[in-house]
Structure formats: structure tokens, C-alpha cells
Amino acid sequence: MSSTSQTPISVTRTRTPQPRPADASLSFGKVFTDHMFVMNYVEGKGWHDPRVVPYAPLSMDPATSVLHYGQAIFDGLKAFRGRDGQIRLFRAQRHAERLNKSARALCIPEMDPGLVRRSFEAIVGVDHEWVPSTQGTSLYIRPTVIATDVMLGVHPAHSYTYFVICSPVGAYYKEGVKPVRILATDNHVRAVQGGLGEAKTAANYAASLSAQQEAERAGYTQVLWLDGVERKYIDEVGTMNIMMQIGDEVITPPLAGTILDGVTRNSILTLLRDWGLTVSERRISIDEVMQAGRDGSLREMWGTGTAAVVSPVGELGYKGEKISIGNGHTGMLTQKLYDAIVGIQYGAAEDRHGWTSTVPALTEA
Ligand code: COI
């Protein structure tokens, strides 16, 4: 029978724990904790054998299907150590549900979301000493599912591996929460309706690389993606959702099948509505944004994502024109949003929506 949220998770501890890096040395996703969570799927048996084991390379046959056809999904969430010493996960349930949504898009068998959530708690509980404590640092949790059939036929696999690895992290961008420069591109597209744009799958990130490289060569940090049909409407920025304030309206593109249903996006829209701001999830063209930049009504722009939380945009380039936003400084609303989310994540601000859940340390019996 397939494992459920009631299935026990076995724990095998490492005999060679690694030294933990100093908080001040942390960047994004370069060091990994001592353990990982693993669970397997075989058709007929379902998901089985949930376990925490020492972190180790995965051994794979070169013909393993994920290596050829990219049947892979992932997600990303964080654990925070508050000043009270408690470790909190941010919106673990929503991340578990989104992993299943990505699974459906890639023909990967779904997992019990309660078990997925427990997989996060188990790995963070075992590696609790790896959760850094300085403000701005966290433990990034990367759940991933890969197809493991050894075959070269193009077909959904019959066997899969789910694993969760963790990395103590600092800021995602070297700029930290400083404004970034972004370049709108109409020679590359990230996704089209009917494609994989709303799934968190390796292919979307592979598809972004050449545009990203082009933006970096032109001196920008990220690409502002336009829609794949008319190449006119704004979709996303880099690996994040995008929002902007024009006059008194906060605008973000709608969830219409091409962009990720960001957990930070959802959290920020909830806060903005709590605060009584006018929020529109609507299509917005690059021409409307450039015009707002020229006439001064474009007040602030920011990206939202788990890794960077909120990333202010200080400059927007498009077809050779450059628009400076807020004179290149972080806007007041952007900063307020960052502070509000981070306050909840570290347990310093009231969690009115019940977004955080504490994780107890799993010490050796
Ligand atoms: C995020 O903003 O959390 C992302 O999706 C970035 C990640 C792929 C590193």
C-alpha cells in the first residue's frame, strides 16, 4: 500500500557529520546538510519506504529517463530560526500541494500531501542544528521528484525517486535586498499557455538560461519575460513573480497558465489586501509599464519568490530604453512587504494567517 501521512519515517544518522559553515559565509545553495529524505515509487506498490538517510550521491544508470527527457519536478521552501530559538517552516502545506500540482503536469504520481509535509519536518528535525540564526539566513529545503526508469522510450516512467535536500542559505542575489536591474526581452519566451509554465519543473529553468545569459552580458541581473504569443504582456521576472505599483494600483499578472502560482506572491497579495490597497491581478503590457515609467506614475516594482523573498527593481530596460524606478532605491511599499514577510517567518510579527508551523528537533533516541 502506498505510504500515507501515518507511515513511519525511518532515520539513519550519518557517522561523519560535516562542519557547519559560519552564517556570514552563506550564499545560496552551495553547501548541504548531513542528511536527506528519500522515498521511492514503483507502479503497483505506490510510494514506499520513506526515510531519512545520510546525504549521499544518487547512483543512476546512464539510461535513466530523467537524464534524457526531464521528467522532473521540484519545489523550494524555507525553515527559519527565530530569536526565540524556535524553527518555523513557512507555508509548508501550500508547498506540499504545489509539488503535487507540478506532479500532475508532468504525469508523476502524486504523494500524500501530509506525508510530503512530514518529509520536510523530518529532514529539518534531524538537521535542526544546520538552521542558521542570523537575520536574512535560513535553511532552504529542496524537495525533488525524478523519473528513474531505465529506458529510452518517451513515456511517463513507472518508477520515481522523491528526495529532499537542505542547504543553509544567505541572500539569493549578491545585491541582497538592494534593487536589481532587469531587461525585458522579446527574443526569448519562457512559456506558453498549454505548456509547463505553471509547473515547477527543470525544463522551465533550462529554457531560461540563454535569455538570462544575454541579460547578464548586457549588464542586467534578470530577464523580464513577456508572453509567448504577442510578446507584449508581462509574465514573470527571472525565476520570480513580478509586481508593480502604478499610481495607487498594485498590479501583478494573473495566474493564467504560464506563470508559477508563487507562494510568496500569494502571501504578498494577501498582505496588500489586508492593508486595504488596491490590487489587480490583470494583464499588463510592457508598453503600459514603460509609459508609466516615463510619466512618473510607476512608483515601485519588485519580484517575489521564496529564495529572494522580495527583490526590488531599480531599473528596467526595453528596446534600448532605460527606465529608472524610484531613482534606483528600494521603495517604501517594497521594504514594508519585505519586513512584514520576514517578520512572520522569524516569528517576530503576528502570524494572522497561520502560515508558519514550528518544527521540533529530532534528537537521537
Ligand atoms: C524562488 O524564487 O524561490 C525560485 O524559484 C528560485 C529557485 C529556482 C532558486
UniProtKB/TrEMBL annotation:
Residue numbers carrying N6-(pyridoxal phosphate)lysine: K200
Cofactor(s) named in the record: pyridoxal 5'-phosphate
Ranges where the record places region Disordered: 1-25
Bias kind Polar residues: ranges: 1-17
InterPro entries in the record: Aminotrans_IV, Aminotransferase-like, B_amino_transII, BCAT-like_C, BCAT-like_N, BCAT_family
E.C. no: 2.6.1.42
Biological processes, Gene Ontology terms: isoleucine biosynthetic process; L-leucine biosynthetic process; L-valine biosynthetic process
Pathway(s) of this molecule: Amino-acid biosynthesis; L-isoleucine biosynthesis; L-isoleucine from 2-oxobutanoate: step 4/4; Amino-acid biosynthesis; L-valine biosynthesis; L-valine from pyruvate: step 4/4; Amino-acid biosynthesis; L-leucine biosynthesis; L-leucine from 3-methyl-2-oxobutanoate: step 4/4
Catalytic reaction list: L-isoleucine + 2-oxoglutarate = (S)-3-methyl-2-oxopentanoate + L-glutamate; L-leucine + 2-oxoglutarate = 4-methyl-2-oxopentanoate + L-glutamate; L-valine + 2-oxoglutarate = 3-methyl-2-oxobutanoate + L-glutamate
Gene Ontology molecular function: branched-chain-amino-acid transaminase activity
Pfam families in UniProt: Aminotran_4
Keyword list, A-Z: Amino-acid biosynthesis, Aminotransferase, Branched-chain amino acid biosynthesis, Pyridoxal phosphate, Transferase
Job of this protein: Acts on leucine, isoleucine and valine.
Family from the record: Belongs to the class-IV pyridoxal-phosphate-dependent aminotransferase family.
Protein name (record): Probable branched-chain-amino-acid aminotransferase
